[in-house]
Amino acid sequence: MNSEQARALITQTFTHAFDKNSFGNLAINLLKHFDERKSFAMTVPAAFTPHIRSCWRLGTYKSPEGELADVLIVNTTEAYKLERTRTALRNFVAHKLKRQDSYKEAGLVAFVSPDSRSWRFSYIRMEYESKRDAMTGRIAVEEHLTPARRFSYIVGEGESCHTAQTRFLNLLKTDADPKLADIQEAFSVEAVTKEFYKEYVELFEEIHKELDRLVGKDNTIRQEFREKNVNTVDFAKKLIGQIVFLYFLQKKGWLGVAKGTIGEAVRAIF
User: Fold this and answer.
1) Which residues contact 48 (CB under 8 A, 6 or more apart)?
2) Domain parsing of the chain, residue ranges
3) Segment holding 230, helix H or strand E
4) Can you give the three-state secondary structure of 39-86, one letter per residue?
5) pLDDT in tens, 17-47
6) Element containing residue 118 per DSSP (H, E)
7) Which residues pair with 127 in a beta bridge?
């Protein structure tokens, strides 16, 4: 798949309401040797029914290193479950990945709200460890889950999903099957944080340079900076911080003010 095709597929999948066919197409192209023969509806145990309406397994992937991963669609009972019941959702996936004697190392999961407009794209990693029971002497397998927050993106209608799109582009462009470690890296918070700060520094330097130019050129602006005892470095930092904060408020839907007016949160900042 070339860059244009990969970008189109990612945009279609991540910036729109959840669509099973689009998600399945992404899985097929991301996981080249994806076994769709193991696709079926999975039962939801009573313990999870307050949170989960239904679950569908699209198939199973076997990595070049022989590790197995299921691709799942998990439909929640309420939209708020995506944010507020992450532990329950993660435990449900763990329950499905550890079925009888079949142990899957990971799950690539779409957690979907009832209206399908917003959904969470998650990677859940299982770590299995064999331990001997001190009482019985038997060997038992224990599982350890990676934190759901660390490996997750909120995507869907109205979401820009720039980071998610960027992180999966290279995996789609290659013809090779990805290792599970490669998929996990695409969800890595550390990598996302590094990318954020790299762009932050570039933006700061650009704003700082422009402010220096304006202060040096305009006597009024220069006098204003002196009177308020403000330098261009601190001004640039504060400006970017305010923009990021406003974007946070916008994403949370807390700027729902009448058209042509300014909200109290914005007025308080400026």
Assistant:
1) 88, 91, 92, 95
2) 3-175, 191-269
3) none
4) CEEECCCHHHCCCEEEEEEEEEEECCCCCEEEEEEEEECCCCHHHHCH
5) 999 999 999 999 999 888 888 788 999 999 9
6) strand 118-132
7) 144
Q: Are 75 and 119 in contact (CB under 8 A)?
A: no
Query: For residues 70 and 54, what is the distance between their CA atoms, to the nearest angstrom?
Result: 16
pLDDT for 196 equals 72
Cα-flanking dihedrals φ and ψ of residue 86, to 5°?
-65, -35
User: Measured between alpha carbons, how far is 10 from 170 in angstroms, rounded to an integer?
Assistant: 11
φ, ψ of residue 141 in degrees (nearest 5): -100, 125
pLDDT in tens, 205-237: 999 999 999 989 999 888 888 888 889 999 999
For residue 125 the two structure tokens come to 């990693």
Q: Tokens in use for 237?
A: 């930092």
Write the CB contacts of 57 (distance below 8 Å, at least 6 apart in sequence).
Answer: 38, 39, 40, 41, 42, 70, 71, 72, 73, 96
Question: Tokens for 253?
Answer: 């839907």
pLDDT tens sequence across 131-140: 556 666 665 5
The pTM of the full predicted model, rounded to 2 decimals, is 0.68
